[in-house]
Amino acid sequence: MNSTSDDYDIETIRRDFPILSRQVHGHPLVYLDSSNTSQKPRVVIDAISDHYAQHNANVARAMHELGAEATAAYEGARAKVAHFVAAAEPAEIVFTKNSSEALNLAAHTLGASLRPGDEVVVSVLEHHSNLVPWQLACQRTGATLRWFDITPQGRLDLEAAEREGLINEHTKVVSLAWVSNVLGTVNPLRRIAEQAHAYGAVVVADGSQGVPHLPTDVGTLGVDMLAFTGHKMCGPTGIGVLWGRRALLDELPPFLGGGEMIGEVRMEGSTWAEIPHKFEAGTPPIAQAVGLGVAVDYLETIGMGAIARHDHQITAHMLEALGELDFVHVMGPDKPVDRGSAVSFTVDGVHPHDLMQLLDSRGVAVRGGHHCAEPLHRRLSISSSARASGYLYSTDSEVDALCEALTWAHAFFTGRVAARA
């Protein structure tokens, strides 16, 4: 198995993840579906278990030792996440249940000020979580939804957008993926944000595929809001994040009503708590936040720069290896330049769903479908694709195992081999 550099000990990292030692259908697990969800290191699993076993209580309202411990752990996780993305203060971190809820929060609150004649700009490569909420916001308000198209290389067509005046004086919100979950394209957020800000627009980024893989500084990105999710960055499911600039969050209305998001409640009306609690109604995902905080500790111990370099090396090897298979057609940029680790492709004569199942019979886990990006697949004139995606624990040998399994699957579906796995 490979090591990205002398100080990146892939074998030690892999031992941190219990699931990577298991077998599937009699084969060693080759997990190449991290863009869907990442695996969890033992320290995260243990932290969640310890929280429930020793510190379980509600936060902010239980006036006893367990409540104090749970609150300290929950708010401590917020501080860790704030540091991880270089936020100005922990109050800029709003916990949600996932990226989808974070983006819905953005769309509902920013959408409250939209009017007919206003425009919201997205792109054709968005995950449904960064498309459908804005569609709904525009339907509620009469605003118009517009979008970036892509070039044949799978990158945003910035020249066409500028030529057509896509971002203009009517633009109120621009919401874009930092990294495409299908094509792997890394979008030039800062350049687009500067253009949008010149017209007074708010810029939202879906960082679901960026934050887990790249060093993140919200100031450098140049956006006003950033959504991401714990389960793609070695944390548990059920916890997401919306970072927002304090001045913006202060002026936005609440998203959900209930306990803890209030200042004072009377029958005639209510006032709201300060941020971030204004956006965190009810009992929050406490243990999940604790797990995310430990996941952040784990990633920072390895170093996000080292993780990014390892991801780049694995993606480069995957692009090169898949490029040598003449029956495989990679979607998006075919070079590892401004490219994330999600590599989607089609295989001649094999439907992605069938391919996914056949690869699974060899222990190789990938995803098949439209990856919650149906408009993008329609734009590319295909209904679905397969997707392989590595992460900090992935190896060159796993990529090679994928290619061997693809060769076998293609031969099977074209009648060149027997069905024996």
From TrEMBL:
GO terms for molecular function: cysteine desulfurase activity; lyase activity; pyridoxal phosphate binding. It comes from the Bacteria. It catalyses: (sulfur carrier)-H + L-cysteine = (sulfur carrier)-SH + L-alanine. Pfam families: Aminotran_5. Its EC number is 2.8.1.7. InterPro entries: Aminotrans_V_dom, Aminotrans_V_PyrdxlP_BS, Cys_dSase_SufS, PyrdxlP-dep_Trfase, PyrdxlP-dep_Trfase_major, PyrdxlP-dep_Trfase_small. GO terms for biological process: cysteine metabolic process. Residues 30-402 form the Aminotransferase class V domain. The keyword Signal does not apply. It is an enzyme of class 2 (transferase). Its cofactor is pyridoxal 5'-phosphate. Keywords: Lyase, Pyridoxal phosphate, Transferase. NCBIfam families: sufS. Belongs to the class-V pyridoxal-phosphate-dependent aminotransferase family. Csd subfamily. Catalyzes the removal of elemental sulfur and selenium atoms from L-cysteine, L-cystine, L-selenocysteine, and L-selenocystine to produce L-alanine. This is Cysteine desulfurase.
